[in-house]
Amino acid sequence: MIWQQLTGLYGSYPLALRGLGMTALLSLIALVGGTLIGFGLGILRTAGNRAVAAVIGAWVDLIRGTPFLVQIFIVFFILPELGLELDAFSAGVIALVNLNACFICEIVVAGIDSVPKGQVEAALASGFAKWQRMRLVVLPQAMRVVLPPLVGQYVLLIKDSSVVSAIGLTDLTRVGWLVVQRVPNGLLVFALVGVGYFVVCYPLILLARRLEARMSAAQGVVRL
Amino acid sequence: MIEFRGVNKWFGPLHVLNDIRLSVQPREVVVVCGPSGSGKSTLIRCINGLEEIQDGDLIVDGQRVGDKATDMTRLRTEIGFVFQSFNLYPHKTALENVTLAPIHVRRTPRAEAEEYGRELLAKVGLGDKFDAYPAQLSGGQQQRVAIARCLGMRPKIMLFDEPTSALDPEMISEVLDVMVAVAGEGMTMMVVTHEMGFARSVAQRVVFMDRGAIVESGTPEAFFSNPGHERARAFLGKILRH
User: Fold this and answer.
1) Which pLDDT band, with edges at 50, 70 and 90, does A144 fall under?
2) Which segments of chain B have a pLDDT < 50?
3) pLDDT over 90 for what percent of chain A?
4) Which neighbouring-strand residues pair with B57?
5) What is the pLDDT of residues A55-72, one digit of tens each?
6) What residues contact B24, with CB distance under 8 A and at least 6 apart?
7) Strand, coil or helix: what is A128?
8) Does A185 touch chain B (CB under 8 A)?
9) B134 closest CA partner among B148, B123, B119
């Protein structure tokens, strides 16, 4: 019987690859888009005017304080009511990018706030303009603090992307649901789904570790 | 070069600068001393706009600090500022610390900025530390890099905010030597310090502050031999006892 299940599973591998591809694609778009927008929001929130910062802060709190599943339903089912028709893929991408931009914004703000005030004063005293202070002095130092949780967020993002299966996108998780109807061994099927996610996430975890080590070395930080 | 005309500043109810009137001439070296909390640091931090003044006029290099028409970013490029805690950029090497502002603010070509940067670092005795990161340098070395960083901008004025207070005693003289050399080249300087030896040998004027006000101002000779104000006498008695 287990043999039958294994051959069944083997027969499902094109579907599994498609799922893995969908998960990877969604994650990649959300990663790049979320990072760009998240950094933009984070910088605006710390360096922009107060009204802008308040609006960004409120939006970030709203997104962080509501379940992702609800957000994705709103984008997919409610926005069309307002005349914005979206296919499942676009809806998934928008919801994921937005979610990650908000979390990354928080990470970036924390990183920028961690840079000592004396650094900003030194940059001011040197005559750097506002954007130069951010680009040349504050952000490079903030990156050290930002990078580990940022890559941690990427890992969460890849896993969060499984929620898009709820609106019918054939990602890795949905492939699991489909396959388990043919191969009635949930443990085996979802263990493999887990392995699929791990395969995508693990290189990121390794990357985070290497980047961190290199950053520390560059600044002559003694490791405990 | 620097002129305070009745400058006032408050931190909440605390009157940190009380009707400051002070004029610093080009090439003059003025030492500011006084007990902690007397407003010395605040005084020099106002000059490059790190603190805002609330009343009175402050004219630096012909421009009114805090005036809407004054480009503070531009004005700051003419003013070097040395911090008590160095504030070197930790992610940049010693040479990069010196060349960063010349390259990005003055738009000096990189090669030229680096050549001058090396020259300056050699001058402050760090000719072998171009590629060292701040964390690899001692406090005295970091402060000398910080001074070179200011000089890299070819400023008209240098401000020092307790430049040796965070240093171990054996490192103080290496920093003071550099400051003496800078003063010797005719730099206009305001130095907040308790190093009375430096004041005696380099300063043209010593200003004594207490509770936000300048209570005494005169030549080092006059100040040290015969301080007029009772609080200045008490202060000198405390710091010169040893």
Assistant:
1) confident
2) none
3) 51
4) B5
5) 999 999 999 999 999 999
6) B1, B2, B3, B30, B188, B190
7) coil
8) no
9) B148
Quote the minimal CA–CA distance from B49 to chain A in Å: 9
Which uninterrupted H or E stretch holds B20? strand B14-24
Smallest CA–CA distance from B81 into chain A, residue? A125
Contact between chains at A125 and B89 (C-beta distance less than 8 A): no
Residue B205, SS3 per DSSP: strand
**d(CA A140, nearest CA chain B) in Å:** 7
Residues of B in contact with A136 (CB under 8 A): 100, 104
Which two three-digit tokens encode residue B66? 């805090």
pTM (whole model) above 0.90: no
Per the structure block, which two tokens stand in for A127? Answer: 């005559």
More confident residue, B78 or A217: B78
Compare CB distances from A218 to B85, B91, B105 and report the shortest one's residue.
Answer: B91
State the Cα–Cα distance between residues B204 and A29, nearest whole angstrom. 65
Q: Label residue A195 exposed, middle or buried (CB < 10 Å: 0-12, 13-18, 19+).
A: exposed
Interface test with A, best of B42, B52, B65, B87 (most A CBs within 10 A): B87
- Judged by phi (left if over 0) then psi (alpha if -120 to 50, else beta), residue B107 lies in left
* Cα B98 to Cα B117: distance, rounded to the nearest angstrom: 6
- Which pLDDT tens digit goes with each residue over A90-130? 999 999 999 999 999 999 999 999 999 999 999 999 999 99
Burial A25-43 (b: 16+ CB within 10 A, else e): ebbebbbebbbebbbebbb
A162 is written with which tokens?
Answer: 């499984």
Nearest to B104 among A125, A136, A218 (CB): A136
Chain A residues in contact with B77 (beta carbon < 8 A): 126-127
